[in-house]
């Protein structure tokens, strides 16, 4: 093989290699951005469900909890949520009365509707009201979270194969002279993105820290103010 031919082959390999490096240098941040968004959305779905459980817990027990064990076990096993029951007494309603057109207060006064209080299981009530939704990966259709999925809400969805838990806190703060219940559930980006390119993760965290008081991660609630919003919303 002639020297010229060898040089041409080497140059071709070098060109292909350089082209790949340039392509990869462009694609790498784009892949990172896509993965960052994907993981944010996966966290958001879990955090919204955790918020729903915390709100049900507060409605039931008068406060939030900073323990996943307490949150899940009590809501799943106790018939402790007070709800107003309503029974229509059709045998008492005159034939010329359309109960759907009568104000409920009047129907109660006349004995056509009987209201009372009953205790139900909080998780069952949330499912009945459609407040624990998830898109089924197999069918693409919306359904309610299973017991096992509720138990696993505590685990950060990424990196796969790890069992990192969201940080959960609850307590009280003073507001306008009153003590107000608060909670916070969060995961820092260092945990959520730990298996991705280290420099790109560092750059993303630095970018977020440029904005004052912005948390470098995803969360719902806040231990310093009475809000339940998520920073992904």
Show the helix and strand layout.
Blueprint: H1 3-61, H2 68-77, E1 81-88, H3 104-109, E2 113-120, H4 122-128, E3 133-135, E4 142-144, H5 147-151, E5 167-175, E6 178-188, H6 189-192, H7 198-209, E7 217-221
Antiparallel strand pairs: 1-2, 3-4, 5-6, 6-7
Q: How would you characterize this protein structure?
A:
With 233 residues, this protein is of the alpha+beta class. It has a domain at 33-77 and 151-233. It is built from 7 helices and 7 strands, in the order H-H-E-H-E-H-E-E-H-E-E-H-H-E. It has helices spanning 3-61, 68-77, 104-109, 122-128, 147-151, 189-192, 198-209, and strands at 81-88, 113-120, 133-135, 142-144, 167-175, 178-188, 217-221. The protein has a 3-stranded antiparallel β-sheet with strand order 5-6-7. Strands 1-2 form a two-stranded antiparallel ribbon. Strand 5 and strand 6 form a beta hairpin. Helix 1 crosses helix 2 (68-77). The longest helix is centred in the first third of the chain and has 59 residues, at 3-61. It is elongated, with a radius of gyration of 27 Å.
């Amino acid at each position: 093989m002639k020297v010229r031919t060898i040089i041409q082959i080497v140059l071709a390999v070098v060109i292909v290699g350089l082209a790949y490096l340039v392509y990869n240098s462009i694609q790498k941040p784009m892949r990172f951005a896509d993965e960052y968004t994907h993981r944010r959305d996966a966290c958001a779905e879990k955090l919204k469900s955790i918020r729903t459980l915390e709100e049900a817990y507060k409605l039931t027990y008068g406060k939030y909890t900073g323990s996943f064990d307490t949150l899940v076990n009590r809501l799943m096993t106790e018939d402790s949520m007070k709800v107003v029951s309503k029974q229509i007494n059709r045998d008492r309603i005159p034939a010329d009365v359309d109960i759907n057109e009568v104000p409920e207060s009047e129907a109660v006064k006349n004995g056509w509707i009987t209201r009372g209080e009953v205790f139900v299981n909080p998780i069952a009530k949330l499912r009945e009201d459609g407040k624990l939704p998830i898109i089924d990966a197999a069918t693409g259709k919306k359904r309610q979270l299973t017991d096992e999925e509720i138990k696993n809400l505590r685990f950060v969805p990424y990196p796969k194969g790890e069992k990192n838990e969201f940080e959960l806190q609850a307590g009280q703060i003073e507001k306008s002279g009153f003590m107000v219940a608060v909670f916070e559930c969060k995961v820092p980006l260092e945990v959520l993105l730990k298996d991705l390119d280290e420099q790109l993760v560092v750059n993303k965290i630095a970018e977020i820290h440029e904005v004052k008081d912005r948390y470098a991660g995803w969360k719902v609630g806040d231990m310093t103010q009475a809000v339940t919003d998520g920073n992904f919303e």
